[in-house]
Amino acid sequence: MGTVLIGVQWGDEGKGKMTDFLADQVDVVVRYQGGANAGHTVVIDGHEYRLNLLPSGILTGKLSIIGNGVVLDPEVLLEELRGLADQGHDPTRLRVSDGAHLIMPQHKILDAAEEEFRGENRLGTTGRGIGPAYRDKVARAGIRVADMMNPRSFARKVRDGVERANILLQRVYGREPLDPDETIDTYSHYAEELLPYVCNGPAMINDLLDDGQRVLFEGAQGTMLDVDHGSYPFVTSSNPISGGACVGAGVAPSRINRVIGVAKAYMTRVGDGPFPTELTGELGGDLRVRGNEYGTATGRPRRCGWLDAVILRHSARLNGLSGMCLTKLDVLSGLDQIKIAVAYRYGNRRLENFPRDSTVMDEVDVEYTSVSGWSEDISEIRSLNELPDAVGQYVQAVVDLTGVPVHYLSLGPSREQTIQCDFAPG
What we know:
By secondary structure, this protein is an alpha/beta fold. Helices cover 33% and strands 22% of the residues. It folds into three domains: 2-97 and 199-260, Adenylosuccinate Synthetase, subunit A, domain 1 (Adenylosuccinate Synthetase, Chain A, domain 1), CATH 3.40.440; 101-194, Adenylosuccinate Synthetase, subunit A, domain 2; 263-423, Adenylosuccinate Synthetase, subunit A, domain 3 (Adenylosuccinate Synthetase, Chain A, domain 3, Alpha-Beta Complex), CATH 3.90.170.10. It has a ten-stranded mixed beta sheet, with helices on both faces.
């Protein structure tokens, strides 16, 4: 049985927490795309864990696999593994697919140089080398984990990659050239440390599914950052949508039995790009503080705004959602009225679907509906019937506007602050 857990906004929805919460219901957790630009925060027994590359299931001792679709920074991964071991967790339950591509030093330097070159047209990248690594991958010039395990061919591929990168770094961006021998030496040490974890990812995952194992496919970022279906060009360089799980993990669509979407009870995004429901005044700042809306991987402040049903409907179609989890409801406590975007207006047109043109997206006016808020602190509530009526009315409004049932409510960062429910459309 395969389950995909997907973010349905611009990322940071709480996927890490939900992976941890659902870990008791699965046997294996697979990370299928993204890189060290994606941070997952998980709180267990009051202790906060910040993961960038490791699948969140590793904290529960589940077999955790990094799939082919991930671009892997060995330095970051090894630091995370050592950190987990120091905190008493068993890192030996990790496996890394030999088909995953590596982030090399030139990718990080090129990422920063290209973003600086864009100036006012910057994309808001994290500078972690993600875009350049995926670019080399699709240009058939990438280096994979399997290559790192073969010292002779690895050295040749590193030299080729550094030679190409140095042309750009010196002639276009005026940067110092890289030394390929230094990279070869550093990554040879990484290879020795990573060797015990390396596997044939697609073969292992399919064998596990054949054996009846329950596999949770965990994405990074969110639907609106998908390179094909998000708010392009302000997107990531891979496919976080549910279909990306099949490509990134190496499994057939028939292996996926359900898709769970994770949505924050309001909207946030990091970096630049259109954000129709953004709150730029005092309320937006208040939500940022109350929700601790700062990037896990970068610490950058997140932009905050009202929930957007146009985007949620777009995500529901793309991902084939079976149901949703609504997170951070506790952050909305104390608001008299809560707004939800139901449509956009551009000139004399009413838009109920997400527009492809980023210029249009940046200039639309928003049509809202309002629901009553609640004053109570709901973070310590543990059962559905104890919630204020206004919370249920807000959740039902989201369900009716999106057509997707809500099966989980998150009222705080810890595993215990999660309520199972059954809000159905209509």
